[in-house]
Design a protein that fits this description.
Elements: E1 7-13, E2 19-27, E3 39-47, E4 50-58, H1 60-72, E5 78-82, E6 88-93, E7 99-105, E8 109-115, H2 121-135, E9 140-144, E10 147-150
Antiparallel strand pairs: 1-2, 2-3, 3-4, 5-6, 6-7, 7-8, 9-10
Length: about 160
């Protein structure tokens, strides 16, 4: 079975050329129970003062959190992805519906981008999340703390 193409979980750009992209590139350790459902991703952040490419590992619970946060995102609220394991992204919506995006990699970079996304970007990103989950479905179940097995619905 060949590895699927990359899929953009997040792709925010504005008319000024500022952008933040989280591009899922595949499974971290395909075929290994403890790493199979962890996804590798590149974070691309650019503005007139920064042009960065960073690595992010997404656990299934990160996708669940992103889904929940997107549903609740409104002026004055945040959505986030990543976090306590290293690289994190925090999206804060302002009253004018613009976003400040904080990209923080404790070992390398902290930057804040200001984006004015166009259209119904939240709905678009919910569809992007569905596409990531369809491309790399969860195929491992935790049967007890730190005990894993393949899901009966796993596609081989």
């Amino acid at each position: 079975m060949t590895e699927p193409d990359t899929v953009d979980l997040i792709n925010l750009q504005d008319m000024d050329g500022n952008r933040c992209v989280v591009r899922v590139t595949g499974r971290f350790q395909p075929g290994v129970l403890t790493g199979h459902d962890i996804l590798r991703a590149d974070v691309l952040a650019s503005a007139d003062f920064v042009d960065a490419r960073l690595e992010l590992f997404l656990f299934p619970q990160d996708l669940d959190t992103w889904e929940r946060d997107l549903t609740r995102l409104a002026p004055g609220k945040d959505a986030s992805i990543g976090g306590d394991r290293g690289l994190s992204l925090v999206f804060h919506m302002h009253e004018d519906r613009s976003l400040s995006v904080t990209v923080e990699d404790p070992d390398r970079l902290t930057a804040m981008l200001w984006l004015q996304p166009q259209g119904n970007w939240i709905h678009e990103h919910q569809l992007r999340l569905e596409h990531v989950r369809e491309t790399w479905p969860s195929e491992v179940v935790e049967t007890a703390p730190m005990a894993y097995e393949w899901s009966p619905s796993r596609k081989r």
